[in-house]
Amino acid sequence: MTSSDSQTSSPPFSPITSKRVLLSGNQAVARGGYECGVTVATSYPGTPCTEILETLATYDSIKAMWSANEKVALETALGAAFAGARALVSMKHVGLNVAADPLFSSAYTGINGGLVIVVGDDPSANSSQNEQDSRHYARAAKLPMLEPSNSQEIKDLMAYAFELSEQFDTPVILRLTTRLCHSKTVVRLGTPPKNPRGASGFVRDFDKFVLLPRQALLRHSVIENRLLALAENAEKLPFNVTEIRDRDLGIVTAGMAYNYVREAFPDASILKLAQTFPLPAKLIREFATEVNRLLVIEELDPFLDEQIRALGVTVEQADWLPRVGELSPERIERSLARGTPQPLEKGDEAIPPRAPRICAGCQYLGVYTAIARLGVTVAGDIGCYTLGSLSPWNAIDTVVCMGASIGTALGMEKALGEESHGKVLAIIGDGTLLHSGLAPLLDFVHNGGRGTILIMDNSTTAMTGLQGHSGNGKLAQGENSAGHGIDLEKLVRALGVEWVRVADPYNLEETEAILREALDYAGPAVVISRAPCLLIKPKPPVQRAQWNAEACTGCGDCFEVGCVAIEPQEFQGRYAPKISQDLCVGCTLCVQVCPEGALKPRPVSGDLIELGMWKPQAQPMSR
Amino acid sequence: MTLENSKTTTTLIAGLGGQGVVLASGVLAQAALLAGYDVCQSEMHGLSQRFGSVSCQVRLGTGLYSTHRGHKAVDLLLSLEGFEAFKQLPFLRPDGIALANRLWRKPTVAKPPTAASPASTSSPAQLNDPRISWFPGTEATGQANCPRSLNFYMLGVLSTRMEIDDMYWQEAIESSTSSRGRNVNHEMFATGRQVAIRSEACRSL
C-alpha cells in the first residue's frame, strides 16, 4: 500500500553465518516461521510488513505468495491450516480491515494445523492512511493476541504462537508496529527443522468448517470457552514477565512501549504482558497489590488500560500520555513532567521539509499535467500516484483506502445527477485495481455509472518496492507466473466496459484529447495510461532537456509539469527552469509544455555531469 | 571527546535517499556487534526515495531497550548532507557531537516560491552551532571518482569517535559490500578516518 520500503528489502548481512545476528523485526518473523516449520506463507505488500514475505520467499521450504489482497492472503493461509500445515499470513494494519471478514470467521472455524496472523500497526502513520490500533481486532474477533518487544522475542513468540494455535485450535494474531518491524536487534538463531512437517491432511468436520447459522451458534460457545481457557493459560505464560524494583510505582506495558518505559522509568516495577488478549487477570491483580501506584503505558489506544480497569484494578489516570503518534522514552518523560501530551518529536521545522515527489520522468507527470487542465473532480486511490493530490497539479480530491476511487466516483455522480456528467474522474493504479478495484468497476457498470475511470498502468506495485502481481505476472520469488500477467483491456471489457482506450502518457496532447473524449462519452469509459515504472529497469538516459536562456520568457509553464528535475531559479526578476542533469531522464514532457521552445532535448554526450548543488552564502569552515 | 564512559552510545545517521544512510548504519551496527557490544538499530525513511530525508539510529552499550531516542538524547550525529544535519540537531544532546559532510542539497520545490514562503536561501542560524564539525566528504569522494562511497568516508570520520577496533570496522565493511565496490569503500573509510584524526589534532593545538 502506501510506502517506499524498497531500500530495506535485502538484509545486508547473511543471517546464517553467525550465531548472534542483527535481524529486523520483519526478518525475525520470517526466520521464526522458517525455524518452526511454516510451509505456506501469504501477504500483500505494505509498510511496515513488506519484508516479511520478501524474506520468506528466500526459503526453499516455504511456499511464499503475494496474494491479490489481504482477504485472499488470509483465506489462503486459513486453507493451508485447514489442510493441517503451519501457515503464516502477514499484512499492514489497514490490510487487516480488508481481511476482517475471514478473520472473524476463522475464529469460528478454528483450524487444523497452525495459523499465525502477523499485523503491523503504523503509529505516526509514517506510510499509511490512518493510525489505527489493531489490537481491537483481537477482542472483536475473539482471537488471542501476542505482542513482542524486540526481534528475539518476535522469533521466540512465533514458535510459541504456533504451539498456542495448535493447542487451542485457533488462529493467533502477532501484533507489531513500524518501529519494531524496522528496528534491528540481536537475535540468537535456532536450527530449522531438518524435515519441515508437511500438512497432516484435511478431515471433513461439518460442524466446525461449515459455518451455517446453526453451526455458527455452536461454534460461538466453543469460542467463549476457548477465551476463558486462553486467559487461564496466560497466567503461567513465561513471556508475561513481572519485574519488581521500586514498589512505589508499578507500570503495566507491552510491545515496543515496554522498551520506552524501561528507559524512562528505570527504577519502576514493570509487568510486561506478551499476551495482550485475553489478559491474565490474576497476574495483573497480583502485580497491582505489589505496588503503591499503578500506571498503564501503551502506544496508541488505551486498550490494556480499559481492560485492566474493567477487572476492578485501580489504575492511575494517565491523561498526559499521548494517544496520537509514536512514543519515545523522552516523549513519555516530557509528557509526564508537563502533565499533558507533548507533540511528536520531529526534526527542526525551520529547515524546509523534503516533500515526497514523483520521480523525474514518471508517466504520472504527463497524466497529471493533462488532468490539471480538465477542471474535473477526481476520486483518487492509493499508490505513488496519490502524490498527484499535491502541488502543482492538485489533481486528486479524495483518497480513502485501497480501491475506493471507483465507488466514490459513482456515488458523487449519482448524488450530483446529470450535470456531473463529464466532471467526475476516478483514478486507480494497476496494482490497486487488481487488489480491490475489480468489484467496484463491475458495480460501476452494473449500476449505470457514466463517468470515466483512468487506470494508471505502470506494470508493478511501485510504492512498496516493485512486487509482482497478477498484472505483471511475476511471483514472489521473481519468476514468471503460469498466467504471464493478465491483459487489462480484455479484463475491463469483460467487466462490461465498451469504451476502452490506451493513452501514451508521454504524449501530452494525445493524453489530454483521449481524456476529454472519454469524459464526453455517454457511458462508462476507461482510459488506460500505460508506461512501465522507471524504477523497474532504469536505463541511462539518451537525451536530457536543455534550457535556452534567450528563448525563455519566464512564463513558468514548465513548473506545471511538477518534475523534480526542474528547479525554479531566479532569472531577470522572474523564475526560469534549472534542469538537474543528474535527475532528468529526457522524457520531454517539459519540452512539450514550453510555449516558447526554450526547452529542447539534447543528446547525452560523454562529458562529466555537474551536480546542481546549492551553497549557503557563508561557507562553514572545517575545524 | 570519545564516549567510552557512557553506558550507552546513541548515534543518529542522517542523509538523503540514495546516499546509503541505511547501509552506513548497518555497517556501524555490525562493527559494534563484532566488537562485542549489545547493539540495536532503528530506521525511519517514510517516503524517502529520490532525495527524501532518511535517518537511522544505532545504539550500542549495555542496558539497551528502546531502539530510538527522542530530543536531546543522541550522543553523536553523523550527517551526509548539511540541511539534514541542521534538521536533526534537536535530537542531539546539548554536549553531543555532530559530524557533517559539507554538501548542500536544497529541498526541491515544484513551483517558484511566493513572497509568503520562508526565505530558505539565507544562511540558517545553525551554521554557527559549535557542536558541528564539517568534513569535505563530497569533495574527497568526487576527486577519487567514487561519489557513492561517501557513506564510507563519513563512517571513517565517525570511527574516530567510537571505541571499536579497526579490525571490526574492516570486517563489517567487508561483509556489507559487494566485491566490486569493496576496495574503494575500504579506501574512503581510511581517508575519512585520517581527515578526522588530523582535524582533531589541529583543534587540540
Explained architecture:
- The complex is a heterodimer of chains A (623) and B (205).
- Chain A is 33% helix and 19% strand.
- Chain A contains 21 helices and 22 strands.
- In chain A, the strands form six sheets. Chain A has a seven-stranded mixed β-sheet with strand order 3-2-4-5-7-6-12, sandwiched between helices. Chain A has a five-stranded parallel β-sheet with strand order 14-15-16-18-17, with helices on both faces. In chain A, strands 9-11-10-13 form a four-stranded mixed β-sheet, with helices on both faces.
- Chain B has helices spanning 21-34, 82-88, 137-143, 150-159, 166-176, 179-204; strands at 8-16, 38-44, 53-61, 74-79, 92-101, 132-135.
- In chain B, α1 (21-34) packs across α5.
- The interface between A and B is large, with 66 and 74 residues.
Key attributes of the depicted protein:
heterodimer; A: alpha/beta; Rossmann fold; 4 domains; 21 helices; 19% strand; disordered N terminus; disordered C terminus; B: 205 residues; alpha/beta; Pyruvate-ferredoxin Oxidoreductase, domain 3; globular
Q: What's a quick, concise take on this entry?
A:
The complex is a heterodimer of chains A (623) and B (205). Chain A is an alpha/beta fold. Chain A is 33% helix and 19% strand.
- Give start-end ranges of low-pLDDT stretches of chain B: 1-5, 116-121
Strand content of chain B: 15-25%
> What is the CATH topology assignment of the largest domain in chain A?
Rossmann fold
N-to-C terminal Cα separation of chain A, in Å? 46 Å
Give the largest interface pair and sizes: A-B, 66 and 74 residues
CATH superfamily of the largest domain in chain A: Thiamin diphosphate (ThDP)-binding fold, Pyr/PP domains
Count of separate DSSP helical elements of chain B? 6
Specify the number of helices of chain A. Answer: 21
Give the helix/strand class of chain A.
alpha/beta
Major sheet of chain A: 7 strands, mixed
Instruction: Give the name of the CATH superfamily of chain B.
Output: Pyruvate-ferredoxin oxidoreductase, PFOR, domain III
Oligomer kind = heterodimer
Unreliable residue runs of chain A = 1-18, 607-623
Shape of chain A: globular
Helix content of chain B: 25-40%
CATH architecture of chain B: 3-Layer(aba) Sandwich
Mean pLDDT over the residues of chain A: 91
Q: What is the average of the pLDDT values of chain B? A: 88
Radius of gyration of chain A: 27 Å
